[in-house]
Amino acid sequence: MLTVNQLSCDYPQQPLSFTLSVAAGERIVVLGPSGAGKSTLLNLIAGFIPATQGEVWIAEQNVTSLAPAKRPLSMLFQENNLFTHLSVRQNLALGLSPAMRLSPSQKEKLQALAERTGLLPLMDRLPAQLSGGQRQRVALTRCLLRDQPLLLLDEPFSALDPALRQEMLVLTQELCRENRLTLVMVSHQFSDARFLADRCILIDQGKLAWSGTWQQLEKGDIDAAKVLGIRRTNDQ
């Protein structure tokens, strides 16, 4: 589904170069210390940061020169990027049409997914009238409405309290399975990898330092806690 080949960009702190492959339907959690290049990797894949060399392939298509809106992916940030003057319904509609003019089938799809994610009682509210967890649920639902095969999550739940964060992780796992999505999620939490990941990727000093299962990581295949500063305790 995703191939990143010697992808790099101008980065003042350190040289960055990434090479990795993600299979269709695979769920990857990207771990590593602050400043290692995790968010930069996602922004390079999404096209928000231009690559100085290398390639990005998604679903057998070279998307390296495509604008972010043209790439077959959806990306969710820690800041949910909802439009504050639009209702939940209108924010969701943007996932289907920039003009928010929906066909009957699109309206049906929006309604069904809003019900699945528990948003139906909130459809006429503005973002300011929602809790942090509710806003992230709206943002995640909007990503899913775009019906793209690749979902990129950049620490979207780190600002939530532990109970809400766990709720969002469960919802993400269920929706990825149901929609057969390929997931790449940046996190500082080892517990996220334990819950979500088919595979973990460790980024350190602008490059891929290690790749394997969370079980291998937990058993000490690499001392991630010391080398990369990952929090391995229970959701600290």
Mean pLDDT: 86
The number of helical elements comes to: 8
Spatial strand sequence of the major β-sheet: 6-7-8-3-9-10
Number of domains: 2
> What is the global morphology?
globular
User: What is the highest CATH level, the class of the largest domain?
Assistant: Alpha Beta
**Content-based structural category:** alpha/beta
Q: Unreliable runs, pLDDT <50, ≥5 residues? A: 231-236
Determine the CATH superfamily of the largest domain.
P-loop containing nucleotide triphosphate hydrolases
Largest sheet: 6 strands, mixed
**Which oligomerization state do the chains in this entry correspond to?**
single chain
**Span between termini:** 33 Å
What Rg, in angstroms, do the CA atoms define?
18 Å
* CATH-derived architecture of the largest domain: 3-Layer(aba) Sandwich
Which secondary structure elements does this structure contain, and how are they paired or packed?
Blueprint lengths: L1 E7 L9 E5 L4 E5 L6 H9 L6 E6 L2 E2 L10 E5 L10 H6 L10 H13 L15 H14 L4 E5 L7 H18 L2 E5 L3 H7 L2 E6 L2 E6 L1 H5 L5 H4 L9
Parallel strand pairs: 3-8, 3-9, 6-7, 7-8
Antiparallel strand pairs: 1-2, 1-4, 4-5, 9-10
Helix pairs in contact: 3-4, 4-5
InterPro entries: AAA+_ATPase (IPR003593), ABC_SmlMolc_Importer (IPR050093), ABC_transporter-like_ATP-bd (IPR003439), P-loop_NTPase (IPR027417), Thiamine_ABC_ThiQ (IPR005968)
Pfam family, one: ABC_tran
GO molecular function, one term: ATP binding
